[in-house]
Automatic annotation (TrEMBL):
Molecular function, one GO term: identical protein binding
Protein name as catalogued: Uncharacterized protein
Spans through the membrane: none
GO CC aspect terms: ESCRT III complex
Amino acid sequence: METLKAMFVKPDPQTQVRKCNQLIRQNTRKLDRDIANMKLAENKARTLIIQTNRRAQRNPAQAKQAEKDIRIFARELVRTRRQHNRLVTSKAQLNSVSMQVTEAFAVRKIEGSIRSSVGIMKDVNSLVRLPELTGTMRELSQELVKAGIIEEMVGDSLPDELEEEDEEAESEVDKVLGEILSDKMSKVGATPTTPTPVQQEPVAEDEDEEDAEAMLDQMRGRLEALKS
């Protein structure tokens, strides 16, 4: 009965706008949490690079392994920064969707009709392809279709550029290492032979080394998965 009613009775505009706003707020909170987590991960990777470099200086016998570990941490830092930037961009797109949806419903209230928006469709299509938001953004797109704000369901395929970025990461790794280690690494894989003055956060040595090993294992697993 409810299904038949939904086919012949138009949705209440107030209910539609509340549902859309609720989904937008839900996605915004999710993005805020993810952005904060990415920033924490970025700071952690930066600290681990500094600590590993410092240990290599104190113990030259570990220098070769330290070089490999530093690059793994740097790759993770590059990946984290890219994801952070992608999430910030997505939040801006979501804010744009929110404003356009509000405007569309306001026009509907005044004129009694609503016009589909190519701009909203483009932003929603981009957001629904973001892994972190796929589920709730697909639900929002369905509500926007019902309201007539967009004309059709959006696609849910992942962006092809994600794989391309991984192939370009090595040049960014070198840049990150030069930035963090004050440009003392003269070439890829070179180990500083003299102490490198770096600014670092005060940390407990034993605890940080354990964290470094745990994070290193996770990163190695992620890199092996990418290679396969």
